Amino acid sequence: MSALSFAVDIGWGTTLAIKTLVILMIVPATALILGYTFLLKMMSHMQSRLGPMDPGGFHGWFQLVGDGMKFMQKEDIMPAEADRRVFAMAPMVVVVSTFLIFLVIPAGPDIVVKNLNVGVFYALAVSSLSVIGVLMAGWASANKFSLLGALRAAAQLIAYELPLLLAIVGVVIQASTMNLQGIVGAQSTGSIFGFDGLGNPYILTQFVGFALFMIAAQAELTQTPFDMPVAESELVAGYMVEYSGFRFLFFFIGEFGTAFAFAAIAATIFLGGWALPASWGLSVGLMRFVGPAVLFAKIMFVAFLMFWVRFTYPRLREDQLQALAWKVLIPIGLLNIVATAILKVAM
């Protein structure tokens, strides 16, 4: 091996290791950020819950730390009749599916782990892997409530993956690419009726798709009003009923990490991602530093909308959930694709 090829190999390996380390840090960090900001603080204000505001002095900052310590100290219990190997692997499958989504989300002009030409397709494909982990958890627990919750979750996730996909197809048609960086660039350099001061964020032209995406993402996250798989009053926490301690914490991290991932996807394809309008004249070098902050602000806005819905509406019935997906969201998604295609050809 020549010195040059050895240097290239070392450089590639170092870059991959750095990117992998960053991704491994992102998911737990996002779970902490969303858990602290929205679950403990925003919900407490909206529902007048004073408990999370007290621990640790200033604004209850120690509540999240205390919850983490509680989970780590709890005994790791495994049912006697459970399939031990599958039971142990299920939380990891859920978390890994969340890690994989972040690989293609760009945070700057060249800040992305893998810039795939089919980035949108990849992100949606790996996000559906969590269904496997949910089914594994429900079946391996050897508990009727756990299995029923897992079957509910599988039916729900499969039903709402279709409107989630249809919501994004309109964006792909308008941008003429499935590359996430390409979609960001199309919004940054675009214009609205000749005005390029705001670029062309697709939330303006694909507002129907954005609404579909937000509803479907809420169902994919099994958050209220679509929380039937983990309905405490009906299924005693559903497929997670037999999990405790650190394994339960993995499901918690997976839930909030996936919420952050879906918010990042929505911010990227509907709000322009890390980019600002090209007409503002900011350099690529400057956007390497500004871009992550811009993307984070947009993600927090989308996450705020998700959790606002979670804290506002009551739980639907199972038949209402399925009817909403198959009779309402999917037809609207198909009509949105047809309208987008016609306007794309006509204009």
Word description of this protein:
Helix 1 (3-46) packs parallel to helix 12 (284-310). Helices cover 69% and strands 0% of the residues. 41% of the residues are buried. The chain has helices at 3-46, 62-73, 84-101, 119-127, 130-140, 144-175, 180-189, 202-205, 207-220, 232-235, 245-270, 284-310, 318-346. The chain is globular, with a radius of gyration of 21 Å. By secondary structure, the protein is mostly helical. The chain has one domain. It has 13 helices and no strands.
Task: Please provide a brief summary of the model.
By secondary structure, this protein is mainly α. The chain has 13 helices and no strands. The protein starts with a helix and ends with a helix.
Using DSSP, what is the number of strands?
0
Treating each run of at least 4 consecutive H or I residues as one helix, how many helices? 13
**CA gyration radius, whole angstroms:** 21 Å
Q: Percent range for helical residues?
A: 55-70%
Strand content: under 5%
How is the biggest beta sheet arranged?
A: none
Report the mean per-residue pLDDT as an integer: 83
Distance between the termini: 55 Å
Q: Give helix and strand order, one letter per element, not per position.
A: HHHHHHHHHHHHH
Low-pLDDT runs = 1-10
Structural class by SSE content: mainly alpha
How many discrete structural domains?
1
* Overall spatial form: globular
